[in-house]
Design a protein that fits this description.
The structure is a single chain. The longest helix is centred in the middle third of the chain and has 35 residues. The protein folds into 2 domains: 71 residues, Glutaredoxin, CATH 3.40.30.10; 127 residues, no CATH class. Helix content is 54%, strand content 7%. The chain is α+β, with helices and mostly antiparallel strands and 228 residues long. The protein is flat, with a radius of gyration of 19 Å.
């Protein structure tokens, strides 16, 4: 059986997921750093939406993390990653979808990038984006608390003071809670606008967030990589 090739850039959270899965399954693999080619025709030929990761395994080429993870689990021997019952597998897919739709975009793209990543690149953070995201983050943490059986200790509003869940989130991110939550509850709670989160971040995404083409990263004066 040919050795699988993981294609992406080292800083991507979703690339890390695939590499961890392969390691857990004891599957030898090669890693191809795509960062110098991000946004080029060669990249788009692998992933038509210009993202990472991509997996190549013989004549199979896949993109999207969930699809790759399922393929690895079913194509290779090793410890199974998916539950055996339909209900449990359904719950697994429910949480994968929830993380992709309700957690990662707001916690990472809309809060962490605005508060931590962009300032380090010399770009002013957009508090409208953060203000729009924080109630979504709060709701996500409440749901997570309930699912873990701690509904009686559900997160208090994260803009009033660093609650337990906020401290835990900050610990995972490796930063102090104040760096994420910001200095003013008044600013945090202010209604952002009627615009959707996508419309709030489109301009910044084009400037720097996804950095699919060298010209975008050079406009930001940045030559490294950001998490995908």
């Amino acid at each position: 059986m040919p050795e699988p090739i993981v294609i992406g850039f080292p800083g991507s959270t979703y690339v890390h997921i695939i590499r961890l899965i392969l390691t857990h399954k004891n599957v030898p693999y090669r890693f191809r750093d795509l960062e110098p080619e991000m946004g080029t025709p060669a990249h788009i030929a692998l992933h038509p939406f210009g993202r990472v990761p991509v997996l190549q395994h013989g004549d199979v080429t896949l993109y999207e993390t969930s699809a790759i993870a399922t393929y690895i689990d079913e194509a290779f021997d090793g410890p199974p990653l998916q539950p055996h019952t339909p209900a449990a597998r359904g719950r697994l897919q429910q949480w994968i979808s929830s993380v992709n739709a309700y957690y990662y975009p707001y916690m990472i793209y809309h809060v962490t990038h605005e508060r931590l990543v962009f300032p380090k690149l010399g770009i002013a953070s957009d508090e409208k984006v953060v203000a729009h995201a924080l109630p979504k983050v709060e709701r996500g943490l409440e749901v997570l608390e309930q699912e873990l059986g701690h509904a009686e200790r559900a997160a208090v509003p994260c803009v009033a003071a660093p609650a337990r869940s906020d401290r835990a989130r900050a610990k995972v991110a490796g930063v102090a809670p104040a760096e994420i939550l910001g200095p003013s509850a008044t600013i945090e709670r202010r209604s952002s606008t009627a615009r959707s989160p996508n419309s709030l971040t489109t301009k910044r995404g084009n400037r720097c967030l996804f950095m699919l083409a060298p010209s975008r990263s050079s406009r930001c004066g940045f030559t490294g990589s950001l998490p995908a």
